[in-house]
Amino acid sequence: MKEKYNHLRKLLRIKEFQGKTVIWWIAAILLLLAAVLAWQLVSRKTQEQKAAPQKETEIKVSSPAANLGPYSGLSNEAKKKILAKVTKKEGDEVVFTADGVKVIYLIRNDVFNVAISKGSFEEKKKVVEDWFKSFGLTQADLCRLSIRFAAAREVKFPLSNIDSAPTGCRVEVNR
User: Fold this and answer.
1) What is the pTM of this model?
2) In this prediction, what percent of the chain has a pLDDT beyond 90?
3) In this predicted model, what pLDDT tens digit does every residue of 120-152 receive, in sequence order?
4) Domain at 58-174: CATH code
5) 24, CA 20 to 30 Å: which among 39, 103, 132, 156?
6) Over the chain, what HEC string results?
7) C-alpha–C-alpha distance, residues 57 and 51, integer Å
8) In this structure, are residues 105 and 93 in contact, taking their beta carbons and an 8 Å threshold?
């Protein structure tokens, strides 16, 4: 009779052990599911960040310095004349080129990016500013337009925030 109870005790221990094993398996599966869901959530967020336009350091030209003179009052008309060269509805379009200089209009952002690839940075910046002024704009008007200057490393490095804006404009940097 004692053997029957021993055998019964062994069976109960095995079932108890098997019960714990089942609990451990369930816990492991739940932990694995939680890890997979967390990974999917993180990968979805990174995909959304890649898809969304990344916010870069924004250089905001707040206003002209006092000595730049008055606004012409023609900034809207002049901008329309400049943008008459834009034929696309999306993307970027080159609106002016000169030796070592390109003015690229970013349609979506409504920004003029000026790329200076060779020559003197200050001279090329003046060429571009004079081109904008040829539409009837004043130096003060240039501060109102979203114009950003960039230069190749061999032209001017490092480029300061003040260099990135039209001459004489006050600059605020937002990060």
Assistant:
1) 0.58
2) 21
3) 999 999 999 999 999 888 888 888 888 999 998
4) 3.30.750
5) 39
6) CHHHHHHHHHHHHHHHHHHHHHHHHHHHHHHHHHHHHHHHHHHHHHHHHHHCCCCCCEEEEEEECHHHCCCCCCHHHHHHHHHCCCCCCCCEEEEEEECCEEEEEECCCCEEEEEECCCCHHHHHHHHHHHHHCCCCCHHHHHHCCEEEEECCCCCCCCCCCCCCCCCEEEEEEC
7) 18
8) yes
The domain limits of the chain are 1-52, 58-174
Which are the contacts of 91, defined by CB distance < 8 A and separation ≥ 6?
A: 107, 108
Which residue is associated with the tokens 């003197």? 120
How does pLDDT run across 54-81, given as a tens digit for each residue? Answer: 444 454 554 444 455 656 667 778 888 8
